[in-house]
Amino acid sequence: MSGPAHPAALGLPRPPFPEIYLRLARTLAARSTCKRLAVGTVITSTDFRKVLAVGYNGNATGLPNTCDRDEPGNCGCLHSEENAVINCDSPRSVEKYAFVTHLPCVACAKRLINLGNVKHVYYWQDYRIRDSVKLLESVGIPVTQVELRD
Ligand SMILES: [Zn+2]
Ligand SMILES: [Zn+2]
Known about the structure:
By secondary structure, this protein is α/β, with parallel strands linked by helices. It has one domain (about 15-145): Cytidine Deaminase, domain 2 (3-Layer(aba) Sandwich), CATH 3.40.140. Helices cover about 25% and strands about 20% of the residues. It has 4 helices and 5 strands; from the N terminus they run αββαβαβαβ. A 5-stranded mixed β-sheet has the order 2-1-3-4-5, sandwiched between helices. A hairpin with a 5-residue loop joins β1 and β2 (about 50-55). α3 (about 105-115) packs parallel to α4. The longest helix is centred in the first third of the chain and has 13 residues, at about 15-30. The two termini are about 25 Å apart. One zinc ion binds near residues 79 and 105.
């Protein structure tokens, strides 16, 4: 026999889907070209069976793989959630979950709202400005922080 042992054989629990997709978001964040913060986003169906779109933050396609300027909060990069929303061609009627490595900013919270039918936002790392939590919850979208143990 070869290969790694089955996780169950090691006594490991089956990982919940939110953890799996947040790990995928974290993996995607490694492709970020923003010098300030690497953020990744995954949008899935609410049965977790389909990845509908992914995104990470950085400059627009074909432009230099770096920020436009060093100004904090105005580096010119497209945000991870923004790119995932742009990449999501699922219709508004499809219910969705959003998984983001970092708590979304207010503008991205509004983008996720207008994507339509986003039922829950999960994130890993908190952000000092938490206005988006109230905003999302005010339109019925719960926001949950998920701990990743590794
Ligand atoms: Zn940037
Ligand atoms: Zn944002």
